[in-house]
Amino acid sequence: MATSWQADSGDTDAILRAVRRVARALALASRDLARQHGLTAPQLMCLRLLNEQGALSAGALAGALSLSPQTVTGLIDRLHARELVTRVRSETDRRQVRIGLTDQGRGLIRAAAPGLQDRFVARLDTLETARRAGLREALDTVVTLLEAEALDAAPLLAPGDSLACVHEAGTRGAPPRPDEGDGSAAPTHAGDGPGA
């Protein structure tokens, strides 16, 4: 008969394995996206948003992606360097710059197959409301246990962003290497993460 400690240890191990599997699934999906298209998950999300809504200001992009303006600026810089987006000054207000898709950017979106996030969201939508609420509560608990409540996070599946500052400073415009995860950087405090 298992002692309470052994039972607790088994639960703990199972939870740790589950969290590790999630982290690995995200890292593998990010690596595949980088290898196939030279993109990070936030970059692809940005391109898709521009494709759906048309040209937007950097501030509007930051709000829609739930990312800090600093993060979105770096993201746009890298997409612009690859000629996937354009920067166009407003004719009515020269201080305003709108970000739009290039033909190359549209072609890349068409070429990108549905990824892990698309499949996850489709499956999540099939769950009953009560089960989704329970899942959200459980994940909120995991975030609290990991002391990650203050981290800047867009609503997308991508691994942590610890390498973005290095990527942005050293290889601006170059696609992320497959071993760099999603190329975004874990901020030191909420809303202050350079990367994506």
Description:
The structure is a single chain. With 196 residues, this protein is mainly alpha-helical. The chain has one domain (19-180): Winged helix-like DNA-binding domain superfamily/Winged helix DNA-binding domain (Arc Repressor Mutant, subunit A, Orthogonal Bundle), CATH 1.10.10. The protein has 8 helices and 3 strands. It has helices at residues 4-37, 41-53, 58-65, 69-81, 103-111, 116-124, 129-145, 164-170, and strands at 56-57, 85-89, 97-101. The chain has a 3-stranded antiparallel sheet. Strand 2 and strand 3 form a beta hairpin. Helix 3 (58-65) packs across helix 4 (69-81). It is elongated and about 65 Å long. The N and C termini lie far apart (50 Å). Mean pLDDT is 77; it is low at 161-195.
Helix content: 55-70%
Order of helices and strands: HHEHHEEHHHH
Biggest beta sheet attributes: 3 strands, antiparallel
CATH architecture: Orthogonal Bundle
β-sheet strand percentage: 5-15%
Oligomer: single chain
Question: Would you tell me the overall average pLDDT?
Answer: 77
Continuous helix count: 8
Query: Separation of termini?
Result: 50 Å
Radius of gyration: 19 Å
